[in-house]
Write a structure and sequence with these properties.
It is a single chain. This protein is an alpha+beta fold. It is built from ten helices and 18 strands. The protein has an eight-stranded mixed beta sheet, with helices on both faces. A hairpin with a 5-residue loop joins strand 14 and strand 15. Helix 2 runs antiparallel to helix 3 and helix 7 crosses helix 8. The longest helix is centred in the first third of the chain and has 16 residues. The relative contact order is 0.11.
Amino acid sequence: MVGGRVDADMNDAAVQDALQFAVLKHNEGSNDAYLSQVASMVRVQKQVVSGVNYFITVRMARTNCTKNNTNEVCAIHQDPALARPYTCTFTVWSQPFKVLEVTTIQSGYHLFLTEEARTLDLRVKTSHSVKFHQLNMKILNKNKLEIAEGVLFKHLPQSYRVYGYLYNINRNKPTTQEVVVDSWPKFKVIICRPDPKIKGVLESRKRVACYSTEEQALRKMLMDDNVIDWSLDFMTGGFDLSQAPILKEVSSVRDVKFRYMCAVHLVYLADSSHLLTPTVDNDLESRISSLDISHVDLVNKTWKFGGNEQSYNTVKHFISNYPSYCITDGQDQPVSWILLYEYCAMGLLYTVPEHRGKGYAKVLVSTMAKRLRAEGHPVFCFIEEDNIISYRLFKNLGFTEDPSYRAGWIHFNYN
Protein backbone atom coordinates (compact mmCIF):
# COMPACT_ATOMS: atom_id res chain seq x y z
CA MET A 1 0.00 0.00 0.00
CA VAL A 2 1.38 3.41 -0.97
CA GLY A 3 2.36 5.41 2.11
CA GLY A 4 2.26 2.47 4.50
CA ARG A 5 5.13 0.37 5.84
CA VAL A 6 5.51 -3.22 4.70
CA ASP A 7 8.15 -5.83 5.45
CA ALA A 8 10.93 -6.04 2.85
CA ASP A 9 13.37 -8.76 1.82
CA MET A 10 16.60 -8.39 3.80
CA ASN A 11 18.59 -9.77 0.86
CA ASP A 12 17.15 -7.36 -1.69
CA ALA A 13 19.94 -5.49 -3.52
CA ALA A 14 18.37 -2.08 -2.85
CA VAL A 15 18.09 -2.89 0.85
CA GLN A 16 21.73 -3.94 0.98
CA ASP A 17 22.78 -0.73 -0.80
CA ALA A 18 20.78 1.37 1.66
CA LEU A 19 22.25 -0.49 4.64
CA GLN A 20 25.77 -0.14 3.27
CA PHE A 21 25.29 3.60 2.94
CA ALA A 22 23.81 3.88 6.46
CA VAL A 23 26.67 1.98 8.09
CA LEU A 24 29.22 4.13 6.27
CA LYS A 25 27.57 7.29 7.58
CA HIS A 26 27.28 5.75 11.03
CA ASN A 27 31.03 5.10 11.11
CA GLU A 28 31.89 8.56 9.77
CA GLY A 29 30.49 10.00 13.01
CA SER A 30 33.03 8.10 15.10
CA ASN A 31 36.04 10.13 13.95
CA ASP A 32 37.60 6.69 13.40
CA ALA A 33 37.77 6.05 17.14
CA TYR A 34 35.95 2.77 16.54
CA LEU A 35 34.43 0.72 13.74
CA SER A 36 30.85 -0.61 13.76
CA GLN A 37 29.75 -3.44 11.53
CA VAL A 38 26.51 -5.33 11.03
CA ALA A 39 26.42 -8.56 13.02
CA SER A 40 22.88 -9.50 11.98
CA MET A 41 19.77 -7.97 10.43
CA VAL A 42 16.67 -7.90 12.63
CA ARG A 43 13.95 -6.39 10.45
CA VAL A 44 13.53 -4.38 7.26
CA GLN A 45 10.48 -2.37 6.25
CA LYS A 46 9.94 -0.10 3.28
CA GLN A 47 7.57 2.73 2.62
CA VAL A 48 6.71 4.10 -0.83
CA VAL A 49 6.02 7.82 -0.75
CA SER A 50 7.93 10.06 -3.18
CA GLY A 51 10.66 7.49 -3.55
CA VAL A 52 11.36 4.54 -1.28
CA ASN A 53 12.04 4.80 2.44
CA TYR A 54 13.78 1.92 4.22
CA PHE A 55 13.58 1.27 7.96
CA ILE A 56 16.40 -1.14 8.75
CA THR A 57 16.93 -2.55 12.25
CA VAL A 58 20.23 -4.35 12.73
CA ARG A 59 22.38 -5.77 15.48
CA MET A 60 25.73 -3.99 15.33
CA ALA A 61 29.13 -4.97 16.73
CA ARG A 62 31.59 -2.25 17.59
CA THR A 63 35.37 -2.60 17.95
CA ASN A 64 37.49 0.02 19.67
CA CYS A 65 40.94 1.32 18.90
CA THR A 66 43.26 4.00 20.24
CA LYS A 67 42.92 6.39 17.31
CA ASN A 68 41.97 9.92 18.30
CA ASN A 69 41.76 11.29 14.79
CA THR A 70 41.82 10.09 11.19
CA ASN A 71 45.55 10.81 10.81
CA GLU A 72 46.61 8.24 13.40
CA VAL A 73 47.12 4.53 12.86
CA CYS A 74 45.09 2.08 14.92
CA ALA A 75 47.23 0.47 17.61
CA ILE A 76 44.74 -2.19 18.72
CA HIS A 77 43.32 -5.05 16.68
CA GLN A 78 40.72 -6.32 19.03
CA ASP A 79 39.50 -9.84 19.66
CA PRO A 80 36.12 -10.27 17.91
CA ALA A 81 34.70 -11.73 21.11
CA LEU A 82 35.16 -8.35 22.81
CA ALA A 83 33.18 -6.34 20.27
CA ARG A 84 30.40 -4.27 21.83
CA PRO A 85 26.93 -5.38 20.63
CA TYR A 86 24.05 -2.91 20.28
CA THR A 87 20.84 -2.51 18.28
CA CYS A 88 20.49 0.29 15.76
CA THR A 89 17.65 1.38 13.45
CA PHE A 90 18.48 3.34 10.30
CA THR A 91 15.95 5.32 8.28
CA VAL A 92 17.18 5.79 4.71
CA TRP A 93 15.24 7.48 1.95
CA SER A 94 15.78 8.47 -1.69
CA GLN A 95 14.28 11.26 -3.77
CA PRO A 96 15.30 10.01 -6.31
CA PHE A 97 18.17 7.47 -6.67
CA LYS A 98 21.42 8.91 -8.00
CA VAL A 99 24.84 7.37 -8.60
CA LEU A 100 27.58 8.60 -6.28
CA GLU A 101 31.28 8.60 -6.96
CA VAL A 102 33.30 5.91 -5.20
CA THR A 103 33.71 6.60 -1.48
CA THR A 104 36.66 5.24 0.49
CA ILE A 105 36.53 4.49 4.22
CA GLN A 106 39.60 5.72 6.09
CA SER A 107 39.45 3.01 8.75
CA GLY A 108 41.72 0.61 6.92
CA TYR A 109 43.58 -0.57 9.99
CA HIS A 110 40.56 -1.79 11.92
CA LEU A 111 39.64 -5.36 12.64
CA PHE A 112 37.58 -7.25 10.06
CA LEU A 113 37.99 -4.56 7.40
CA THR A 114 39.31 -6.28 4.28
CA GLU A 115 40.95 -4.51 1.37
CA GLU A 116 37.86 -5.14 -0.75
CA ALA A 117 35.54 -3.68 1.88
CA ARG A 118 37.42 -0.41 2.16
CA THR A 119 36.03 0.87 -1.15
CA LEU A 120 32.28 1.11 -1.52
CA ASP A 121 30.49 1.91 -4.77
CA LEU A 122 27.42 3.57 -3.37
CA ARG A 123 24.73 3.29 -5.99
CA VAL A 124 22.58 5.19 -3.60
CA LYS A 125 21.80 8.85 -3.61
CA THR A 126 23.23 12.16 -2.50
CA SER A 127 19.84 13.07 -1.03
CA HIS A 128 19.84 10.04 1.27
CA SER A 129 19.92 10.77 4.99
CA VAL A 130 20.36 8.59 8.04
CA LYS A 131 18.41 9.24 11.23
CA PHE A 132 20.10 8.16 14.46
CA HIS A 133 21.53 9.73 17.56
CA GLN A 134 25.18 10.40 16.81
CA LEU A 135 27.45 12.86 18.57
CA ASN A 136 31.04 13.83 18.01
CA MET A 137 32.00 11.72 21.02
CA LYS A 138 35.65 11.70 22.09
CA ILE A 139 37.53 8.90 23.85
CA LEU A 140 40.12 10.62 26.04
CA ASN A 141 43.80 9.69 25.82
CA LYS A 142 46.37 10.17 28.57
CA ASN A 143 47.02 13.86 27.95
CA LYS A 144 43.32 14.71 27.73
CA LEU A 145 42.57 12.72 30.89
CA GLU A 146 45.00 14.88 32.85
CA ILE A 147 43.32 18.04 31.56
CA ALA A 148 39.86 16.63 32.33
CA GLU A 149 40.92 15.83 35.90
CA GLY A 150 41.78 19.49 36.42
CA VAL A 151 38.40 20.56 35.04
CA LEU A 152 36.50 18.15 37.29
CA PHE A 153 38.48 19.32 40.34
CA LYS A 154 36.73 22.68 39.96
CA HIS A 155 33.35 20.95 40.19
CA LEU A 156 33.93 19.03 43.44
CA PRO A 157 32.16 17.68 45.41
CA GLN A 158 29.48 16.88 42.80
CA SER A 159 32.05 15.45 40.36
CA TYR A 160 33.79 13.21 42.94
CA ARG A 161 32.73 9.88 41.39
CA VAL A 162 34.15 10.59 37.91
CA TYR A 163 37.02 12.66 39.32
CA GLY A 164 38.08 9.66 41.42
CA TYR A 165 38.27 7.40 38.37
CA LEU A 166 40.44 9.93 36.51
CA TYR A 167 42.61 10.51 39.58
CA ASN A 168 43.61 6.84 39.71
CA ILE A 169 43.94 6.41 35.95
CA ASN A 170 46.27 9.41 35.74
CA ARG A 171 48.48 7.89 38.43
CA ASN A 172 48.80 4.63 36.50
CA LYS A 173 46.55 2.61 38.78
CA PRO A 174 44.98 -0.44 37.11
CA THR A 175 41.55 0.45 35.76
CA THR A 176 38.59 -1.22 34.11
CA GLN A 177 37.32 2.03 32.61
CA GLU A 178 37.67 4.21 29.55
CA VAL A 179 36.51 7.82 29.51
CA VAL A 180 34.43 9.62 26.88
CA VAL A 181 33.15 13.19 26.59
CA ASP A 182 30.53 14.85 24.40
CA SER A 183 33.03 17.35 23.01
CA TRP A 184 36.59 18.58 23.51
CA PRO A 185 38.16 20.63 24.99
CA LYS A 186 34.99 22.16 26.42
CA PHE A 187 32.79 19.29 27.54
CA LYS A 188 29.40 19.28 29.25
CA VAL A 189 29.22 15.52 29.82
CA ILE A 190 31.94 13.07 30.83
CA ILE A 191 31.29 9.34 31.22
CA CYS A 192 33.41 6.48 32.56
CA ARG A 193 32.40 3.12 31.11
CA PRO A 194 33.75 -0.46 31.09
CA ASP A 195 36.65 -0.78 28.66
CA PRO A 196 36.29 -4.08 26.72
CA LYS A 197 39.94 -3.88 25.65
CA ILE A 198 40.96 -4.68 29.23
CA LYS A 199 41.24 -8.38 29.98
CA GLY A 200 38.65 -9.63 32.44
CA VAL A 201 36.62 -6.41 32.60
CA LEU A 202 33.38 -8.19 31.69
CA GLU A 203 33.99 -10.77 34.43
CA SER A 204 33.76 -8.13 37.17
CA ARG A 205 30.84 -5.97 38.18
CA LYS A 206 30.31 -3.41 35.42
CA ARG A 207 29.98 0.23 36.40
CA VAL A 208 29.19 3.42 34.54
CA ALA A 209 29.74 6.87 36.04
CA CYS A 210 28.76 10.21 34.57
CA TYR A 211 29.01 13.87 35.42
CA SER A 212 27.17 16.57 33.52
CA THR A 213 26.75 20.30 33.79
CA GLU A 214 23.74 20.38 31.45
CA GLU A 215 20.74 18.06 31.43
CA GLN A 216 20.01 18.36 27.71
CA ALA A 217 23.61 17.49 26.86
CA LEU A 218 23.40 14.46 29.15
CA ARG A 219 20.18 13.29 27.50
CA LYS A 220 21.74 13.55 24.03
CA MET A 221 24.87 11.73 25.17
CA LEU A 222 22.90 8.83 26.65
CA MET A 223 20.80 8.52 23.51
CA ASP A 224 23.92 8.04 21.40
CA ASP A 225 24.10 4.35 20.44
CA ASN A 226 27.87 4.28 20.84
CA VAL A 227 28.35 5.78 24.29
CA ILE A 228 27.05 2.99 26.55
CA ASP A 229 26.48 -0.66 25.76
CA TRP A 230 22.89 -0.96 26.98
CA SER A 231 22.88 -4.73 26.47
CA LEU A 232 25.12 -5.15 29.53
CA ASP A 233 24.05 -5.67 33.12
CA PHE A 234 25.59 -2.59 34.76
CA MET A 235 25.21 -0.10 37.59
CA THR A 236 25.55 3.64 37.48
CA GLY A 237 26.12 5.37 40.78
CA GLY A 238 27.19 8.60 42.36
CA PHE A 239 25.13 10.58 39.85
CA ASP A 240 23.15 13.71 40.72
CA LEU A 241 19.80 12.42 41.96
CA SER A 242 18.04 15.27 40.15
CA GLN A 243 19.09 13.58 36.89
CA ALA A 244 17.32 10.29 37.70
CA PRO A 245 14.30 11.19 35.49
CA ILE A 246 16.64 11.47 32.48
CA LEU A 247 18.12 8.03 33.14
CA LYS A 248 14.64 6.57 33.57
CA GLU A 249 13.48 8.22 30.33
CA VAL A 250 16.43 6.88 28.35
CA SER A 251 16.02 3.36 29.74
CA SER A 252 12.34 3.45 28.77
CA VAL A 253 13.13 4.53 25.21
CA ARG A 254 15.71 1.77 24.94
CA ASP A 255 13.41 -0.81 26.57
CA VAL A 256 16.01 -1.54 29.24
CA LYS A 257 15.08 -2.77 32.72
CA PHE A 258 15.62 -0.06 35.32
CA ARG A 259 15.90 -0.53 39.09
CA TYR A 260 16.35 2.40 41.43
CA MET A 261 18.59 1.08 44.21
CA CYS A 262 19.18 3.86 46.71
CA ALA A 263 19.83 7.50 47.44
CA VAL A 264 23.11 8.27 49.16
CA HIS A 265 24.88 10.98 51.10
CA LEU A 266 28.18 12.15 49.62
CA VAL A 267 30.47 12.97 52.54
CA TYR A 268 34.03 14.18 52.13
CA LEU A 269 36.98 15.47 54.13
CA ALA A 270 37.45 19.09 53.13
CA ASP A 271 40.52 19.67 55.28
CA SER A 272 42.92 17.43 57.22
CA SER A 273 42.51 19.61 60.30
CA HIS A 274 38.84 18.60 60.45
CA LEU A 275 39.67 14.91 60.93
CA LEU A 276 39.12 13.52 64.42
CA THR A 277 41.77 10.98 65.44
CA PRO A 278 40.48 8.37 67.93
CA THR A 279 42.75 7.17 70.72
CA VAL A 280 44.39 3.85 69.83
CA ASP A 281 46.22 1.79 72.46
CA ASN A 282 49.32 -0.27 71.68
CA ASP A 283 47.45 -3.57 71.48
CA LEU A 284 44.93 -2.28 68.95
CA GLU A 285 47.59 -0.49 66.95
CA SER A 286 49.54 -3.75 66.61
CA ARG A 287 46.48 -5.42 65.09
CA ILE A 288 45.94 -2.85 62.32
CA SER A 289 47.15 -4.17 58.97
CA SER A 290 46.14 -4.51 55.32
CA LEU A 291 43.96 -7.07 53.59
CA ASP A 292 45.48 -9.50 51.10
CA ILE A 293 44.23 -11.91 48.44
CA SER A 294 43.51 -14.61 51.02
CA HIS A 295 40.76 -12.36 52.44
CA VAL A 296 38.81 -11.87 49.19
CA ASP A 297 36.28 -14.59 49.95
CA LEU A 298 35.62 -13.27 53.46
CA VAL A 299 34.98 -9.72 52.22
CA ASN A 300 32.87 -10.91 49.30
CA LYS A 301 30.60 -13.01 51.52
CA THR A 302 29.90 -10.13 53.91
CA TRP A 303 29.51 -7.37 51.29
CA LYS A 304 25.92 -6.26 50.80
CA PHE A 305 26.36 -6.45 47.02
CA GLY A 306 28.62 -9.51 47.08
CA GLY A 307 28.20 -13.25 47.16
CA ASN A 308 28.75 -14.07 43.49
CA GLU A 309 31.62 -14.56 41.06
CA GLN A 310 31.45 -11.04 39.61
CA SER A 311 31.59 -9.43 43.03
CA TYR A 312 34.42 -11.80 44.01
CA ASN A 313 36.49 -10.57 41.05
CA THR A 314 35.60 -6.98 41.93
CA VAL A 315 36.75 -7.35 45.55
CA LYS A 316 39.93 -9.07 44.36
CA HIS A 317 40.60 -6.10 42.05
CA PHE A 318 40.15 -3.65 44.94
CA ILE A 319 42.39 -5.52 47.39
CA SER A 320 45.09 -6.16 44.77
CA ASN A 321 45.40 -2.59 43.54
CA TYR A 322 44.20 -0.08 46.15
CA PRO A 323 44.79 0.66 49.85
CA SER A 324 42.89 -1.32 52.48
CA TYR A 325 42.98 -1.62 56.26
CA CYS A 326 41.76 -4.23 58.70
CA ILE A 327 41.86 -5.03 62.40
CA THR A 328 42.64 -8.63 63.30
CA ASP A 329 41.73 -10.80 66.26
CA GLY A 330 44.06 -12.96 68.36
CA GLN A 331 44.33 -15.50 65.54
CA ASP A 332 45.34 -12.85 62.99
CA GLN A 333 41.95 -13.08 61.25
CA PRO A 334 40.33 -9.83 60.05
CA VAL A 335 37.29 -8.86 62.11
CA SER A 336 36.84 -5.32 60.78
CA TRP A 337 37.94 -3.76 57.48
CA ILE A 338 37.66 -0.94 54.99
CA LEU A 339 38.58 -0.84 51.29
CA LEU A 340 38.96 1.71 48.53
CA TYR A 341 36.91 1.58 45.35
CA GLU A 342 38.46 2.02 41.92
CA TYR A 343 37.04 5.55 41.88
CA CYS A 344 38.85 6.47 45.15
CA ALA A 345 35.84 6.36 47.49
CA MET A 346 36.16 4.58 50.81
CA GLY A 347 33.76 1.67 51.15
CA LEU A 348 32.92 -1.93 52.07
CA LEU A 349 33.31 -0.91 55.73
CA TYR A 350 32.34 -3.90 57.85
CA THR A 351 32.80 -5.33 61.34
CA VAL A 352 31.78 -8.88 62.20
CA PRO A 353 28.85 -8.83 64.67
CA GLU A 354 30.69 -10.18 67.72
CA HIS A 355 33.28 -7.37 67.52
CA ARG A 356 30.92 -4.43 67.07
CA GLY A 357 30.71 -1.63 69.62
CA LYS A 358 34.49 -1.54 70.10
CA GLY A 359 35.15 1.53 67.93
CA TYR A 360 36.94 -0.43 65.20
CA ALA A 361 35.12 1.26 62.31
CA LYS A 362 36.01 4.70 63.65
CA VAL A 363 39.69 3.74 63.88
CA LEU A 364 39.77 2.30 60.35
CA VAL A 365 38.04 5.29 58.72
CA SER A 366 40.37 7.71 60.50
CA THR A 367 43.47 5.66 59.62
CA MET A 368 42.49 5.37 55.96
CA ALA A 369 41.52 9.05 55.67
CA LYS A 370 44.80 10.19 57.24
CA ARG A 371 46.83 8.10 54.79
CA LEU A 372 44.84 9.23 51.76
CA ARG A 373 45.17 12.91 52.67
CA ALA A 374 48.92 12.51 53.25
CA GLU A 375 49.30 10.98 49.77
CA GLY A 376 47.18 13.67 48.10
CA HIS A 377 44.16 11.45 47.40
CA PRO A 378 40.61 12.75 47.47
CA VAL A 379 38.87 11.54 50.63
CA PHE A 380 35.16 10.83 50.31
CA CYS A 381 32.49 8.20 50.79
CA PHE A 382 28.97 7.45 49.56
CA ILE A 383 26.62 6.38 52.37
CA GLU A 384 23.10 5.06 51.84
CA GLU A 385 20.49 7.36 53.37
CA ASP A 386 19.08 4.60 55.59
CA ASN A 387 22.54 3.78 57.00
CA ILE A 388 22.25 6.25 59.85
CA ILE A 389 25.01 4.66 61.94
CA SER A 390 27.67 5.04 59.23
CA TYR A 391 26.47 8.54 58.38
CA ARG A 392 26.86 9.67 62.00
CA LEU A 393 30.25 7.95 62.26
CA PHE A 394 31.68 9.87 59.29
CA LYS A 395 30.11 13.17 60.35
CA ASN A 396 31.48 12.79 63.90
CA LEU A 397 34.95 12.17 62.44
CA GLY A 398 34.88 15.55 60.66
CA PHE A 399 33.47 14.71 57.24
CA THR A 400 31.11 17.21 55.66
CA GLU A 401 28.58 17.30 52.81
CA ASP A 402 26.69 19.68 50.56
CA PRO A 403 23.17 19.56 52.09
CA SER A 404 21.59 20.51 48.75
CA TYR A 405 23.16 17.56 46.91
CA ARG A 406 22.09 13.91 46.85
CA ALA A 407 23.53 11.14 44.74
CA GLY A 408 21.81 8.01 43.48
CA TRP A 409 22.46 4.42 42.40
CA ILE A 410 20.64 2.65 39.55
CA HIS A 411 20.89 -0.90 38.19
CA PHE A 412 20.21 -1.53 34.49
CA ASN A 413 19.47 -4.89 32.85
CA TYR A 414 19.45 -6.60 36.24
CA ASN A 415 18.74 -10.32 36.47
